[in-house]
Amino acid sequence: MNKSYLGIFKMEFKGELQYRNKAISGIFTQFFWGLLQIYLYVAFLNDTPVNGFSISQMATYIWLGQAFFAMRFITMPKRTGDNIVNGNVSYNFVRPLDLYNNWFCENLGQKIAATLLRFPLIIVIALFLPGNLKMYAPVNITALLLTILGIILGICLSVAISMFAVYLTFKTLSQKGSATIVATISGLLGGIVIPLPLMPQSLQNVINYLPFRFISDLPFRIYIGNIGITEGLIFLGIGIAWLIVLIIIGKLLIKSALKNTVIQGG
Amino acid sequence: MASIIDFTDICKTFKVPLRTKGKFSMFKNFFIRKYKTIEALKNITFKVNEGDIVGYIGPNGAGKSTTIKIMSGILTPTSGNCVINGYVPWKNRREFVKNIGVVFGQRSQLWWDVPIMDSFELLRDIYKIPKDEFDKTLKLLNDALNLETLLNRPLRQLSLGQKMKCELAGSLLHHPKILFLDEPTIGLDAITKLAVRDFIKFINKKWKTTIILTTHDMNDIEALTNKIILIGKGQILYQGSFEKIKENYASSKTITVEFAKDYDNIALDGYEITNHEKRFATLKNLPSKQFHPKEFINEISKNYEIIDFQVTSLSVDEILAKLYKQYEIIER
Ligand SMILES: Nc1ncnc2c1ncn2[C@@H]1O[C@H](COP(=O)(O)OP(=O)(O)OP(=O)(O)O)[C@@H](O)[C@H]1O
Ligand SMILES: [Mg+2]
Asked: I want to staple B118 with a disulfide (CB 3.0 to 4.6 A). Which of B87, B93, B114, B177 is the partner?
């Protein structure tokens, strides 16, 4: 990658690291939401496995979801959206950079920093919780390595999908509306609203091949051993293919949006 | 001399979607579009020579910022041609922008939470400026603008004036051939304004940078530019030297007269009474009337007893106000 894109990435990364208070309150929310989900799961389903998930697997899956919530939840950095709506984006235009790459790196820097700030604490606490609440270690070291690969892929996918919110913001000049649409669709299909393993099998058969499940559902299932190594590798391949497709579509959309875009403000 | 900016018949119309408010308005606005059009620029044609400082002036909403955005490759015009430094800005944007610097007085190109120096270093990477060249330029800008104490502070801590200095420096790090300044002196105090003006002159001299600036401060124009372009309601009304305009108005005088006693009514052939209060009155000569002090005293003394009078020429602001009025370009 070009040094300037790395620089843009670093700038957003450093910027996001400054929001420690936001991260701490996020951690609290995620932690209690995780507890609640596991309690509900235990209360309603007792010990009957659902779609092949045991209680311990489900608890681990839920904790991973909470720990990596920042990665799973599709956002567009506030600054990117603000800049488009208020016209500061003018300055992006006068740089010798590709604008898609520019915003992609901005989003990526922000996403990675937000994720790094949040996940370690939740994981550490969850590993030491008692009884049904406990999060378990990965099934084996290969699964862990694949999980890490999957999470890296997930972050990239998350950012590639958030670029659609950037596109919509250009089109509608409503950053909140655009972010909400993209977050809602990917939240439904990515398992944020209802964990994917709890969805009816028939629905899962479709969702499993859409890009959203590759963000987090795939690495988490590899971690708990619900998806084996070989199958996991195949799915990672599909995820990478989705990433490429999404980036290409995103680039084309942004290009078309820029062609007849009107920059706001005097 | 060769022209570096060549603007021919540029038109820009904005299609403004008529937005509905309320629930689901975003969806409605996305799918159902009704437009109204605004003609922001109409057949704008001008040339700028290399090394010139051009003042681009006109009242609010005249189209100044729109022109700057087209020149810097941010907006595509609806029609017309434009070649700047050998490029069509909106066609070869990424190549073109390597040789321009842009400052929008009301925005910021630097990053908000990080020290100014970090922003500068990122710009260095973005423009691929060699390290020794970067250091040299930074030292030059540093000396000229007194940035030393500002570089390790984040942008959000700086005052408007300090910010503007950093913005100017940021726009010049890559040694651009052309500099576009959209209201660079907006909101600055008198001393900072002078510093910014001196700096603009300095860079123009030192690097032969071609500079286009918009401003509402006529003193900027007087101090800096060797050519002005006057634009109103999207059309060019005048281009040439500011001196010429001043000459046109040089014969307009304002005369403040002190009388020996109160007069109920004052009138004088060839003059307009713009103010009258007790023993004092302000008069202006009509365009047809040439002002001569001796003749003025003779004529006014026929009917009134005067003690003192004072003659002033139009200020540059007044000249501009007159120009705007004359061309009827002020929107009401
Ligand atoms: N994004 C936009 N959408 C619609 N109309 C616009 C847009 N930008 C500018 N205009 C219109 O184009 C005209 C020219 O605007 P412009 O910003 O170029 O004026 P200006 O000369 O810079 O004024 P000012 O001195 O107030 O900065 C105005 O009528 C403005 O309303
Ligand atoms: Mg303007």
From this structure: B114
